[in-house]
Structure to design on (162 residues):
């Protein structure tokens, strides 16, 4: 995380730290799991860290839930992107076991437990591929993001301080 903070401070120093945290939290794979620790390194107060990390993590979710299926359908037949789409779908479906079995709570747990390969992006992709009801998926992902934010805040700012 130190290297990320150094890169960000060097290349994005023209932005306020709140914007940097929000942008980092929007990125797939990093999401708020990287945004909150980065906020700590940038010395943002905890309420700001949570707000901007959660906001950044939430912004892409509706677009994924609403449009990823259509985008994949459009890209799948192309020679250039067909393989990438298939790889993304297969990777997401390999992780979808608990979500498929326990739909709502499985999705909450998948998004909420901050380990590599989980999070809002992948949770939204899985929900879309499994055709989970939009309202149910949105609520589960938001709850999962709240849980992940709590865990990462405790790790970064609280008991398990970095």
């Amino acid at each position: 995380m130190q290297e990320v903070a150094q890169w960000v401070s060097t290349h994005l120093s023209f932005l306020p730290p709140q914007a940097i945290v929000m942008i980092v939290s929007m990125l797939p794979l990093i999401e708020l799991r990287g945004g909150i620790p980065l906020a700590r390194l940038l010395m943002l107060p905890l309420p700001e860290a949570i707000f901007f990390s959660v906001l950044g993590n939430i912004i892409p979710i509706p677009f994924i839930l609403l449009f990823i299926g259509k985008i994949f359908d459009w890209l799948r037949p192309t020679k250039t992107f067909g393989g990438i789409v298939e790889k993304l779908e297969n990777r997401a479906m390999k992780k979808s076991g608990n979500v498929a079995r326990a739909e709502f709570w499985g999705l909450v747990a998948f998004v909420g437990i901050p380990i590599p390969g989980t999070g809002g992006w992948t949770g939204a992709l899985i929900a879309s591929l499994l055709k989970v009801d939009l309202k149910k998926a949105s609520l589960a992902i938001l709850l999962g993001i709240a849980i992940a934010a709590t865990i990462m805040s405790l790790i970064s700012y609280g008991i398990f301080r970095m």
